[in-house]
């Protein structure tokens, strides 16, 4: 029990501890998980995808809460320095995709995979690719991969207050006609925004931006779904009962006449 309590206190302390950066100090970006957007409980490690990765993968030691959350953080190749903008986009790596890599990426994009990085304890999320819907009959779509990640980071003094990423600054790469070996170049850019918001506002900011679909809507859908089922079943029961009763009445009447 005492061990558990110390763990909880440590977890709370470490989450309250604000990291302070000197200008130009390295801001570590950890890659975390990827998974289908509509099933946030199904997650894989980011480096299971054929993406830019360091020669030696270094995992971050995780807190208890993070382990329970299914986090698997590892260092990334992004070289982000406090208050240093990167623009135009800089190369992250060049990689050559094999047939299997291409198939894996395409499948992930078709399943609407998102990815999650962690920057100064802030989770930032984006989509791996983009599906452009084509004709209706026959149904087809273009599978496109985002190759640039743009980081927006808000800072106040020597602290990071908020961060997000966007992928839409650059045109995606079309994977439909890609033939292995397919060379691809990943890039990134960074913009630092000064803000007056305080470190204490951070929880609100991070929680306020919802990336996942609202669970409330899902609840409504399932409630309506169950209601429809209940009415259908009730309908069947009523139909069967009336038939049986009708038969019984008919028999009763004929019995009477006898
Ligand atoms: C991301 O952050 C930037 C700068 O802080 C902000 O202007 C933008 O609206 C944010 N985008 C989203 C999708 O929250």
Automatic annotation (TrEMBL):
The keyword Cell wall biogenesis/degradation does not apply. InterPro entries: EMP70. PROSITE patterns: PROKAR_LIPOPROTEIN. Residues 1-18 form the signal peptide. Keywords: Membrane, Signal, Transmembrane, Transmembrane helix. The keyword rRNA-binding does not apply. One of its GO terms (cellular component) is autophagosome membrane. The chain crosses the membrane at residues 220-241. It is a multi-pass membrane protein. It is found in: Cytoplasmic vesicle, Autophagosome membrane. One of its GO terms (biological process) is protein localization to membrane. It holds the Pfam family EMP70. Plays an essential role in autophagy. Belongs to the nonaspanin (TM9SF) (TC 9.A.2) family. This is Transmembrane 9 superfamily member. It comes from Lingula anatina (Brachiopod).
């Amino acid at each position: 029990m005492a061990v558990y309590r110390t763990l909880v206190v440590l977890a709370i302390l470490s989450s309250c501890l604000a990291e302070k950066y000197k200008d130009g100090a390295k801001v570590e970006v950890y890659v975390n998980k990827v998974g289908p957007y509509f099933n946030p409980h199904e997650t894989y490690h980011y480096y299971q995808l054929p993406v830019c990765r360091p020669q030696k993968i270094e995992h971050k030691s995780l807190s208890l809460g993070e382990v329970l959350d299914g986090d698997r953080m590892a260092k990334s190749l992004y070289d982000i320095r406090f208050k240093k903008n990167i623009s135009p986009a800089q190369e992250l790596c060049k990689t050559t995709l094999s047939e299997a890599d291409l198939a894996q990426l395409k499948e992930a994009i078709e399943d609407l995979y998102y990815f999650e990085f962690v920057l100064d304890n802030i989770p930032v999320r984006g989509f791996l690719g983009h599906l452009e819907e084509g004709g209706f009959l026959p149904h087809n779509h273009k599978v496109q991969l985002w190759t640039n990640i743009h980081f927006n980071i808000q800072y106040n003094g020597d602290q990071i207050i908020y961060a997000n990423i966007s992928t839409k600054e650059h045109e995606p790469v079309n994977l439909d006609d890609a033939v292995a070996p397919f060379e691809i170049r990943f890039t990134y850019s960074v913009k630092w925004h000064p803000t007056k918001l305080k470190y204490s506002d951070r929880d609100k900011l991070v929680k306020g931006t919802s990336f996942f679909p609202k669970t409330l809507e899902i609840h409504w859908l399932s409630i309506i779904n169950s209601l429809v089922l209940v009415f259908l079943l009730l309908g069947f029961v009523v139909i069967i009962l009336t038939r049986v009763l009708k038969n019984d009445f008919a028999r009763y009447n004929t019995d009477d006449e006898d």
